[in-house]
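Z., the sequence and structure:
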Amino acid sequence: MQFIKDYQQTVSKAIHEYTFTDKSDPLYEPINYITSQHGKRIRPMMVLMANEMFGGDHQKALKPAIGIEIFHNFTLVHDDIMDAAELRRNKPTVHTLYGLNVGILTGDALLLKSIKFFEDLEPDLYHSCLQVFIRSGLLLCEGQQLDINFQKEKQVSFDDYLKMITYKTGVLSAASFEIGALIAGADSAEAENISAFGKHLGIAFQMMDDYLDVFGKDQQIGKVHAGDIAENKKTVLYILARENATQEELERLDYWYATENQNKDKIQAVEQIFRRTKADERALLLIHKHTDIAKNHLDQIKVDDEKKKPLIELAHFLLKRES
């Protein structure tokens, strides 16, 4: 979609413009390394799209949008450290390239730098946007802690899983849309609806990622097939499978998820249980459910339908990977 490419180019150009060259300290080399990598730029795009939908000033929203992207990169740097990941976007992760201590400091500096990108907003608006930003950041940390806890827990309820992905994925999408709306002068009801649109879109997106990890084609997911099974992650497929599994199937799931075995036998066995319990079909229904909830919130916003079309197209872009 051309409009998405246009937004991505706008964000990438702005990030290049604000490359951190204010100090010669070696710390800024890894910061520029991670921010210059071309991710999808989805979250800053959400800020700009919401701002435009409500008739806001594009330039006024641009720096806060970059702030959201800088914050997102902070989470990636620290996530890679916690996951001991060696690659990010097919390039060495910051801590792999520069060392663990530099990786931690890089993430810390990115977090603080992200806040500075809101400083040009007038005081009341700055306060409102920072409230959303900080609240969302804290929830994201809570979601990451839940995800860490799940690795040690034998059973995870669907409600706990939903809370985890809402905090880890949904809240930052919600905050991005809400901040864009606030900068455009949207009222509280409109801001709440665009925030809810972002939250449920983020939930649907994460569930789709879980689904495609096992049932998607390699080109759809861009990573190793069934990596979540190999790493014993408690995804929506695992949780839904347990709800419908026989006693024998539960015992098999417990057996496989108690081992560090990553061979094909494990992946094939677990995938078969997912299919027999219809976890794949139920996951798709949940994805559609949260997509519909997101669209219902968008419908409640009192702007011309024409202005909503880019947001609908963005939702399709994020979820069209369904196999």
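The radius of gyration is 20 Å. The chain has a mean pLDDT of 92.

Let me know what you think.
H.
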